[in-house]
User: What shape does this take?
Amino acid sequence: MFGIRLKRNGSKTPNRNNGQIINLQRVVKTYESAAGSFTALKGIDLQIDPGQFASIIGKSGSGKSTLINMITGIDRPTSGQVLVDRTAVHTLSEEQIAVWRGRTIGVIFQFFQLLPTLTAIENVMLPMDYSGMVSPSERPARAMALLEQVGMADQAHEMPAALSGGQQQSVAIARALANDPPIVAADEPTGNLDSRTAESVFRLFEDMADSGKTILMVTHDNELAVRAQHTIVLADGEIVDERDNR
Assistant: This one.
């Protein structure tokens, strides 16, 4: 579906080879409710190297999405440390996290999360508008270039409702790359796609890793998971296995 190779942007990708780009230390996440407390993560230690393509796999309720939410700053740990790209994410305020995330991590969701009232190209420009990292005059051209890279230039001015699931995910990937982040985190990005489109998405992630980005992919698909460079297996809020696949 995509048939593209990501272009390197050497001017914006600093050398991060001196240590891990993601480092979680003894991370615990407990949720409180009227029914009592539930611990979703139980003392997670995790290190990811720069430029690594890592998959996170486990059964429903194992803590996969909670873990990715810790790394992206969408949620906060009850205890422990979350260090991402040399930033102690768990110490940031909500405002600081929003700015940091816009510059550091491109997030891709299972259900795309495109704004329905914006066209494809406007959705891709949105992170640029929030971060201010790209000048207003350059944003349309950059957004169009990203849509071209994922094979969506012809649909740039379509609304999300007019696009198929695979096309919406393509736009979501372009949006995640808007600010050229060093890290891309994808939570079940192929869960709602047919097998052919899922394969195209996976190959695009491989291209991103080849271009120097660090990729984290939560998936329930064992076959895709083991094709990543590194696989992390979760069960009941704990890492029960880690393996290098290459």
Notes: The two ends are 26 Å apart (CA to CA).
